[in-house]
Amino acid sequence: MSTSETATPNNGGRYQVVVADGISESGLRPLLDDPRFDVLIAADGEALEAALPAANALIVRSATKVTRSLIRRAGRIQVIGRAGVGVDNIDQDAATEMGAAVLNAPAGNTVSAAELTMALILSVVRKVAAADRSVRAGEWQRKRFGGVELRGRTLGLVGAGRIGGEVARRCKAFGMHVLASDPYLTDERARELGVERVELDELKLRADVISLHVPLTDRTRNMFAETQLRQLKRGAFLVNVARGGVVDEVALVNVLTDGHLAGAALDVFDREPLPSESPLREAPNLVLTPHLGASTTEAQELVAEEIAEAVRAALVEGDLSRALNAPAIGGETFRKLLPLLELGRRLGRLGAGLAQGGIKALEVRYAGDAADAPLPLTSYVLMGLLGAIVGDDQVNFVNAPRLAETRGIGVSTHKLARRPDYMSFVELRVSGDRGYTRVAGALLGDEHPRVVRIADYHVDIVPQGSLLVLRNRDVPGVIGKVGTLLGRLNLNIAEYHQSRLAAGGEALAGVAVDGTVETAVLDELCGLPEIIDARLVQLG
After folding, report:
1. CA 412 to centroid of chain Cα atoms
2. Is the pLDDT assigned to residue 462 strictly greater than 70?
């Protein structure tokens, strides 16, 4: 189903929508009040099984696992809606194969998640949960539960999107100074929130309370492992209402046990429900809640209304602007353009990884024979660029332009005259607060992609896997030292391309590495006296 198509209702001209998981009926009014829809509330698994064959749409929360076999039993399914942000419980590949758009409702739980963050911050700094357990046990030990005030202390936000911004406003009302580390936060947005934008290393040194608001991606997984946790101020507090996997749970237990951190609070975990044997259950000064970020009456009504409106628009109007999996072009045109589009997506990810400050504008320049390429190419570039910011599961071909607009990123597309050196050539100019970054790629033949330019340097790199981009002094022995360091870290070099503008000046190297590269590798590379800067980009 493309954006120009509308769904076909069942016989009688009415759409059948099946709702599972106890979703708020008051929030479903956009469907219940529309005579074109029949809404069936599936109270249990048996009712869901019976309703699936006739369903045009299925709406769930997190309890129902929308598996491949379930989707196959829903032979008429055209839309699957998740009343919430994450879609981990939905098999998106199977949905795409069935032609079903997967939609979510990312905005409805913003305030509830921010308020839970505040509740956890207050609980951990004032030791509320531990004091409650003590009183219930018949104790009265006031000295044991002395806390600290938030007034005058510094909050460190790691991620300053929707929820992080709401947390910043609330903490400022408590008299806190707010730092924000977010590579995609612009100066304008920072001023609007009244926060001080800093790098993550500075935030670790200065923040008294650290609150995490980042998606779970390859870059953020174990973002706070033991080394990073010990870089935080001694006596600091850590709160995570974002995603399990961002914090190394075993390492957190260690830094709480030896007193490096004064306390922590978690609402999300690597495995949910939290296993009975998890060491987190015995850790001191740790508050645990069972993923309550959206568990308020208001949030449940808002996400229900948001997804109901999205499902109605998708079925009646063919509006897939909130779809996570549905490209708007198909057939032979899509198949022909796919190598070019995939090159654009990976260049977008490279541009995001090399961006200088918060991204303000993107210019996509295309030279080639495909007259219909520029607009879909731009969407794929945005998929790569924004996927590195908000997570790949939140952006796709359809919603990428809208997401860029909501983040204040200006986007322009230009069709250039065909170049004599390449059949298809793509150049991106990514403007940030501290300057702009230029990257370019080309197709060799019809389907062999290459990165051919980074900044002013000509390179020749296959855009895949883990790519280290190094700026170094053009002196003897650099390549050997880099290779030796990576070898010591058990990282195999797939490609090493060194480029310079003039002998003895600055040079740039693109180093493709097999497997996953931890961000700590960058610190070791920057420790070499010849290396000026090191960036890691996961190209996929």
Report:
1. 23
2. yes
Percentage, residues of the chain above pLDDT 90: 74
Distance from C-alpha of 242 to C-alpha of 185, rounded to nearest angstrom: 18
pTM, to two decimals: 0.71
Phi then psi dihedrals of residue 320, to 5 deg: -110, 30
CA distance linking residue 528 with residue 532, whole number of Å: 9
Lowest mean pLDDT among 105-119, 397-411, 448-462: 397-411
The DSSP bridge partners found for residue 498 are 509
Centre a 10 Å sphere on the Cβ of residue 177 and count the other Cβ atoms it contains.
17
Burial of 85 (0-12, 13-18, 19+ CB in 10 A): buried
Collect all residues with Cβ–Cβ distance below 8 Å to 236 and sequence separation of at least 6.
207, 208, 209, 210, 261, 262
For residues 67 and 61, give the distance between their C-alpha atoms in angstroms, rounded to a whole number.
14
The one catalytic residue among 73, 170, 291, 365: 291
Is 243 noted as a catalytic residue in this protein?
A: yes
Q: Is 291 assigned a catalytic role?
A: yes
Neighbours of 520 (CB within 10 A): 12
| Average pLDDT, integer, range 188-217 | 95
Q: Given 82, 189, 243, 453, which residue is catalytic?
A: 243
Cα separation of the two ends of the chain? 27
Alpha-carbon 278 to chain mean position: 26
Q: Are strands 101-104 and 79-82 parallel, antiparallel or unpaired?
A: parallel
Question: What average pLDDT does range 53-72 have in this prediction?
Answer: 94
Residues near 417 by Cβ (< 8 Å), separated by ≥ 6?
Answer: 367
Indicate if the pLDDT at residue 444 is higher than 60: yes
| Cβ 320 vs Cβ 78: under 8 Å | no
Give dist(CA 112, CA 296) in Å, integer.
7
Strand 196-197 relative to strand 177-181, pairing: parallel
What percentage of the chain carries pLDDT values higher than 70?
Answer: 96
Angstrom CA distances, 144 to 127, 239, 426, 471, stand at: 9, 22, 63, 52
Residue 229 contacts residue 251 (beta carbons within 8 Å): yes
Kindly report the number of other CB atoms within 10 A of residue 247's CB atom. Answer: 25
Name the phi and psi angles at 240, rounded to 5: -130, 110
Give 210: exposed, middle or buried? Use CB within 10 Å, 0-12, 13-18, 19+: buried
Mean pLDDT of the chain: 91
CB burial of 283-296 (b: ≥16 within 10 Å; e: otherwise) equals bebbbbbebbbbeb
What span, in angstroms and rounded, lies between the C-alpha atoms of 257 and 128?
A: 19
Q: In which order are the strands placed within the sheet that holds 359-367?
A: 410-416, 359-367, 424-432, 435-444, 448-454, 457-461
From the candidates 272, 317, 405, 447, give the one annotated as an active-site residue. Answer: 272
Q: What is the pLDDT of residues 210-224, one digit of tens each?
A: 999 998 888 899 999
Q: How many whole angstroms separate alpha carbon 282 and alpha carbon 280?
A: 5
CA atoms within 13 A on the CB side of 371: 0
**Residue 464 burial by CB count (10 A; 0-12/13-18/19+): exposed, middle or buried?**
middle
